Amino acid sequence: MEESGIIDWIITGSVILAKILVIVGPLMLGVAYLTFAERKIIGYMQMRIGPNRVGPRGWLQPIADALKLLMKEVIVPTRSNHYLFVLAPTLTIAPALAAWAVIPFDADTVLADVDASLLYILALTSVGVYGVIIAGWASNSKYAFISTMRSAAQIVSYEIAMGFALVGVLMAAGSINLGEIVEAQRGSLLHWYWLPLLPLFVIYFISGVAETNRAPFDVAEGESEIVAGFHVEYSGMAFAVFFLAEYANMILIAFLAALLFLGGWLSPFEGIPVLAPMFNWVPGMVWLLLKAGLFLFFYLWFRATFPRYRYDQIMRLGWKVFIPLTIVWLVIEGAAVVGGLGPWFD
Amino acid sequence: MSFEKLVFYTFAAILVYAATRVITVRNPVHAALHLVLAFFTCAGLWLLLEAEFLAITLVLVYVGAVMVLFLFVVMMLDINLVSLKAGFVRYLPVGLSVAALMLIEMILVLRSKGFDAASMPQPVRHAADYSNTRELGSVLYTDYVYPFEIAAVILVVAIIAAIALTLRKRGESKMQNPAEQVKVRREDRVRLVKMKAETRPAAESED
After folding, report:
1. Integer distance in angstroms from the first to the last C-alpha of chain B?
2. 10 Å Cβ neighbour count for B99?
3. pLDDT tens digits along A59-93
4. pLDDT band at A331 (very low <50, low <70, confident <90, very high)
5. Residue B196 gets which letter from DSSP?
6. Is A42 strand, coil or helix?
7. Cα distance from N-terminal residue to C-terminal residue, chain A
8. Contacts of A312 (CB under 8 A, 6+ apart)
9. Secondary structure letter of residue A11 according to DSSP
10. For chain B, which residues lie within 8 Å of any Cβ of chain A, measuring from their own Cβ?
11. Least confident interval from A43-52, A271-280, B45-54
């Protein structure tokens, strides 16, 4: 009896481990090629070519970058707090990867079908800030610490607006399970929540950009003022881990925006007489990836287009514009839910 | 030992360790981080009780928000550890009496009627489709709606009071008003003047 129990554990454990590898492997590859896409796309937007030397048309550039970072020495500053200095990258990457456990890629393709998956993601993304805080403090560097304060204040502020936007989604879907939220949007392109929750959708994505400390909200690493932000003192793989976490978080926000507001894996041609059967053969995951890709493109587009916000402007936007706006829209949405406004809330 | 028991004892051990370190560790930042660890493992224990909503909310509110602000304050304090230890002997009797008082209170509560193992019903196992969040919501918004709303009002009052207490105009503040900055038009800053092209006077062009 005991014996079979242990074997069962091992089997279950290795199946879960295999599933984790299937998610994290492509995610890491996605991160690598997102950096490549970033450099190429921003390059073309600025009438440059971008990286084109390593491999055919530069396609091996991210691999070369990763190898370079692997070979470099990890320098721990003498006056830093050594344990926390090493712990900080781990604390950044762990929530960034753990959040992927509940992301559904298709109707039944999900690692952990947690009932409160939306809350779980909200909780884990809020834990990610510790990596930033600890990195800045443990480095014992003024630049890193200034960046830490900026970044933590920004993340805490925008989390509220983001949380309210998510409240709007769960009010509409009547569930906090990501799979059920996507299924609640079934019908057609107009049934997706981007239309009834348009202000929340916009606020969610902008808050997502702010949460991940990306341009135009990247005061945390304003290189013209504070060198490179909270990870100035990090080198080699320790720096690469921060980098990985930032891009994994970007991809996560893009996936969430696609799942919550753009119908996830649902085909955009649903409900259209001729086109819907024509595209029936496309697997749902392809639609999800395309939608997430759209948001990732927005990320890069923002970076190429907008100048950096000033710190007080960021705070004003978060507290005085987004939070009141979300509260007003929640009241309107509450009225629509009570009134059974079709086709979304009936 | 079942898997659940193993998880319980692991988490309980980490929790006790982290909680002890909170009060024994020297560096206040380390203490705050151990408190974070304690909250996190506590959330893990609550998950075992099928209270996933409360567990995730604990992480979201305490770990994700409260402790971040706490850590902020602690990090910016320039604490001298020597002077911190100086008053240890002097404050020891006060500390010990408070600790003894708390210990007695805890013993009184835990030994009271409602807390013995016999009066605690065995927790009911729920099916996989049982939603703790839905149950909690329906209880909060039906049976306990008035206490819940009153608690919310008290919290709002506390928020407003905290803001009112700390909000003050400082003379040296260089605060800018972004609304005014956004409203600026070109005409306010630059004046375009139309004029004819001027030619150089003939006398000067000689040299």
Report:
1. 106
2. 10
3. 888 888 888 888 888 888 888 888 888 888 988 89
4. very high
5. P
6. helix
7. 52
8. B175, B176, B178
9. H
10. 3, 29, 33, 36, 52-53, 56-57, 59-60, 63-65, 68-69, 71-72, 75, 131-133, 175-176, 178
11. A271-280
Show residues of chain B in contact with A82, CB under 8 Å.
Answer: none
Report d(CA A71, CA A339) in Å as an integer: 62
pLDDT band of residue B80 (cuts 50, 70, 90) is low
pLDDT of B70 > 70? The answer is yes
The two three-digit tokens of residue A259, written as one number: 């799942």
Q: Which residue has the tokens 């929540």?
A: A193
Instruction: Tally C-beta pairs within 8 A across A and B.
Output: 63
Q: B139 to chain A, minimum CA–CA distance in Å?
A: 16
Counts of helices then strands in chain A (DSSP H, E): 14, 0
Place of tokens 């500390």: B95
The C-alpha angle B98, B101, B107, rounded to 5 degrees, equals: 140
Spatial separation of the C-alpha atoms in residues A343 and A185, rounded to whole Å: 10
For B40, the closest chain A residue by CA position comes to: A127
Contact A150, A142 (CB under 8 A): no
- What pLDDT does residue B150 have? 95
Hey, how many other C-beta atoms are within 10 angstroms of the C-beta on B78? 4
What are the structure tokens assigned to A335, written together? 């009225």
Nearest CB neighbour to A116, from listed B3, B53, B75: B53
- Please choose, from the candidates A248, A255, A222, A218, the residue with its C-alpha nearest in 3D space to the C-alpha of residue A103: A255
- Could you say which DSSP state residue A128 is in? T
Buried b / exposed e along A214-246 (16+ C-beta atoms within 10 A): bbbbbbbbbeeebbbbbbbbbeebbbbbbbbbb
What does the pLDDT look like over B138-154, one tens digit per residue? Answer: 888 888 999 999 999 99
Q: Do B65 and A159 touch (CB under 8 A)?
A: yes
Residue B56 has its nearest CB partner, among A116, A134, A312, at: A116
User: Measured between alpha carbons, how far is A94 from A85 in angstroms, rounded to an integer?
Assistant: 15
User: Between the CA of residue B20 and those of B28, B37, B69, what are the distances in Å?
Assistant: 13, 11, 22
Instruction: Give the rounded distance of the alpha carbon of B63 from its chain centre.
Output: 6
- How many other CB atoms are there within 10 angstroms of residue A26's CB atom? 12
